[in-house]
Amino acid sequence: MTDDKQKSADEAGWRDAQASRLERDFKAARAEHRHEHAAAFEAWRTEHNRSQSGKEADMTVKTLNDLFIETLKDIYYVEKKLVKTLPKMADKASSDELKEAIRDHLAETETHVQRLEQVFQMLDQKASAKTCEALEGLIREAEETMEEIDDEQTLDAAIISSAQSVEHYEIARYGTLACWAAEIGNSEVAELLEQTLDEEKAADEKLSTIAEDAVNQRAAA
Ligand SMILES: [Fe+2]
Question: How many angstroms separate the alpha carbon of residue 29 from the centre of ligand 1?
């Protein structure tokens, strides 16, 4: 073999070795990622099952579909609870604009409850709610803050802030659920969830506008 031929054979061998090393590294990284993902899911499942034992439905979450149903139960609890909570918030608000926005969202929330019931039905599942500790915490915090405030404008600001915290929780939940529904291959369910997601986003934007208007009014006063 000539020197040139030997050189190009060496280079080809080196490239092959590099390629197989890269492939090996890639496979190892992928396996590690899968392993981490599985470990995180397993930890969540253990914790979830532990917290649920002796409480409500004794369901074991094994698949994405199970997780999807459990999360539906969580948001179903949220929507039903909000149907009771929003009128109280509207009563406490002073600005007519804010009262109206909350009451409009109450009507939407009633639709959200019905839409979720439709989703449960489409999945051949009984509509059931699972206590959402996150929402309970947000409501508790809101009530504690409101108790301390006498000034009407400040109270309105607190109501908007609390309502937006709840909206953001709902946006996160519906965003995830719509994504999972698509992943599971149920585009009709995904569409329904996206419809609610859009309404939650619009409600959140409306609250931001009311908050900005109030800030401008205070600045002009
Ligand atoms: Fe909602």
Answer: 40
